[in-house]
Amino acid sequence: MIKDIKILAIETSCDETAAAVVVNGREVLSNIISSQIDIHTKFGGVVPEVASRKHIEAIGIVVERALEKADVTLEDIDAVAVTYGPGLVGALLVGVQYAKGLSYGLKKPLIGVNHIEGHISANFIQYKDLEPPFVCLVVSGGHTFVVYMKDYGEFEVLGQTRDDAAGEAFDKVARAIGLGYPGGPKIDKISREGNEEAIAFPRANFHDKDSLDFSFSGIKSAVLNYLNKMNMKGEEINRADIAASFQKAVVDVLVDNAIKACKLKRVDKIAIAGGVASNSHLRESMVKEGDKNGIKVLFPDPILCTDNAAMIGSAAYFEFLKERIAPLELNAIPNLKLGER
Ligand code: KG4
Ligand code: ZN
Fold first, then answer.
1. Which of 20, 38, 66, 153 has its Cβ near the most Cβ atoms within 10 Å?
2. 126 CB under 6 A from ligand 1?
3. Going from the N-terminus, what domains does the chain have, and what CATH number goes with each?
4. Strand order in 79-85's β-sheet?
5. How far is the CA of 275 from the centre of ligand 2 (A)?
6. Is 223 marked as binding a ligand?
7. 183 lines ligand 1 (CB under 6 A)
């Protein structure tokens, strides 16, 4: 009989301190997340220095709770996994140092995980039978990619943002219309009361027509210009209409490129990942277009879309199977690229 592999995973790349215990990359025994959102809200965004300090305060207790909830001890763990990039360097270092300490002390293998690969892996937890190849649209606060996942841990980037990430655009526009941080969920909510056809915000156009790249800074600037114009004319703005029109502009581009990528790779399934994958309009629109084109659309539950450690434990399992064990010199790499090791 093949032994179950239990991985203790740690995630501290941005503003959530998270730990989880995951069996065989698919079964989550615990998934503990300590969010710093309340602290950063006061500043309108994540303050890196504050994030690192809060990770240091929280990490011990978060790991302890993850073990408790999973009803396992450190001795039961087969490997320790940690996000080592991309992310905020000071924040990443807290998790990396902690994981290295545990790995050394317990004499258990250490596995370094790419945060974006973790987001993609959330789909393996949600869909127990999902196997590569498939296309994945990764949309988070820091990243926007459409990738072809050839095999576990093997990626081909088909398109990526040339400027702002999708989530970043949501957050910036939310701030501009006074909705606060984090903006994505707030824009999602208020959009339900707005008219998405009210304002025609532009979609990026590249010279290279076949490009699957994204650009969101133009849409964001168009919203800011619109606000300025209305302000100068002394006219009232309708926040719900602005939010709904902006959201539609972003989602149209995401869906369009995602479907094109599936056709290019001749695959009939697409997984969506990252914080913005929780967006209700993106979910509806992706499913509708997927149905039209015979493509199955997969979404993890919202708790697995935003930053968490279960997704890191899942990605780590497939690294473990490939014997990609990290040395104790493992360092945080803030700009780690997808597929890079
Ligand atoms: O994946 P994530 O938790 O962190 C990063 O790795 O960046 O994503 C956070 C991002 C934020 O920009 C947040 O505004 C966005 O995901 N987000 C959403 C929604 N929920 C979270 N954006 C649009 N609609 C949502 N419902
Ligand atoms: Zn993330």
1. 20
2. no
3. 6-123+304-322 (3.30.420.40), 131-299 (3.30.420.40)
4. 27-35, 16-23, 6-11, 79-85, 110-114
5. 7
6. no
7. yes
